[in-house]
Amino acid sequence: MIRSVFLVGTGGFFGSVSRFLASRFIQNSFPSSFPVGTLLVNISGCLLIGLIYGASEKSAAITQGWKLFLAVGFCGGFTTFSTFSNENLALINNGEFFHFLLYTFLSIFLGLGATFAGVLLTKIL
Question: Are 100 and 88 within 8 A, CB to CB?
């Protein structure tokens, strides 16, 4: 268990730092009020987690430890959107279309609602 936590934490550190640097570089390269840096980081993180899981199904070279480090840690730190996308793909592949729609709807609308509520609470308090 300690090894797993270390792998996830180390991967998360590198993912978070990579997200910060990549997003800032992209946003500075394409100045705009549109969050192009975050968008491209999220999409590239989705591609990366797909590559990791796809490769792990084809080859034993990507062990459980590497999956923890790369997918859970790095991609989780790089973008949580990649995990959201991967979990939705798993729901679709398992034929759980209702859960896919429910998870997507709740994640987007409750997430935005919670963010709005947090901002509103800080203004009230």
Answer: yes
